[in-house]
Specification:
about 260 residues; Alpha/beta knot; Trp Operon Repressor, Chain A; 2 domains; three-stranded mixed sheet; elongated; binds ligand 9D3
């Protein structure tokens, strides 16, 4: 998987891509990231990338010329089945796990990071194949969005995660097909009692079948509590209610008789 990032802040990505999963994917040769400085495609002495908006108004707009020339130089002939030019913008459809899986099918993705008040609309109309927003809030530019997109896709590239099962199972225990967002179960580690709060007893029991059932119930209960907006949550709620997860939870407050394994 090859990513191109087109930005006026090339140094922005040093942090996000030099750590963790993305860095490992790059080191393993499974992910390739090329960062391109938009100013390299300006032709004037001052390397101007922006200009005032026609019709007046606040702020500056990214000029089309450096963006078009950059994209045409980076991807000279675009194969729409394998390459995609994406404009990160506050106005695009929201990026989600389903979009990450869709883009994983491509060989090469060029992410255009907007800045200032916006990008000349002809970039959206005639240069980018699609637009992506990462959420309904105002950011200062597309760089953080591009980093999010690269991270989410890179961890799906086969072999990038140590344990290949992880990417498939996490948050998709039974929602992988239709893109339903299914939350993971709660996790605990030592000590078994921390500041008086106990780990649910079943997790210390060694009863794998009981643990599996508890984890499923707890995941559903947590999702319906924290994400009632998700469609699966209402079904989850019913199941959690029937199976009485809340009853399981009350054991949190009781001190454990079991020895602290620490
Ligand atoms: C309401 C007028 N403008 C806000 C001051 C609109 C606007 C222009 C430019 C809002 C954001 C931006 C810059 N944002 C991005 O380039 C961006 C973004 C975002 O703001 N939110 C979520 N995802 C993304 S991806 C790129």
């Amino acid at each position: 998987m090859k990513f191109h990032l087109l930005t006026i802040f090339p140094e922005f990505f040093r942090g996000p891509f030099e750590h963790g999963v993305v860095a490992r994917g790059v080191a393993a040769g499974l992910v390739e990231i090329r960062i391109h400085n938009l100013r390299d495609w300006t032709s004037d002495f001052h390397k101007t990338v922006d200009d005032r908006p026609f019709g007046g108004g606040e702020g500056m707009v990214l000029k089309p010329q450096p963006l078009f020339e950059a994209v045409e130089a980076i991807l000279p002939e675009r194969d729409p089945a394998r390459q995609r030019v994406i404009l990160l913008s506050a106005h695009g459809p929201l990026f989600d796990q389903r979009a990450a899986r869709r883009l994983l099918e491509l060989k090469e993705v060029l992410l255009i990071c907007g800045r200032y008040e916006g990008v000349d609309e002809r970039v959206s109309e005639h240069l980018a194949d699609e637009e992506i927003s990462i959420g309904n809030y105002v950011l200062s530019g597309g760089e953080l969005g591009a980093a999010v997109v690269v991270d989410a896709i890179s961890r799906l590239v086969p072999g990038v995660l140590g344990n290949q099962d992880s990417a498939l199972h996490e948050s998709f225990s039974d929602g992988g097909e239709d893109g339903e967002w299914v939350l993971d179960c709660p996790h605990y580690t030592r000590p078994a009692v921390f500041r008086g709060w106990s780990v649910p007893e079943v997790l210390l029991s060694g009863h794998h079948e009981e643990i599996r059932k508890w984890r499923r119930r707890a995941a559903l209960e947590k999702m319906s509590r924290l994400r009632p907006d998700l469609q699966a949550a209402s079904a989850a709620d019913r199941e959690a209610g029937e199976l009485n997860v809340k009853g399981t939870e009350s054991s949190h407050d009781q001190p454990l008789s079991a020895e602290d394994p620490e």
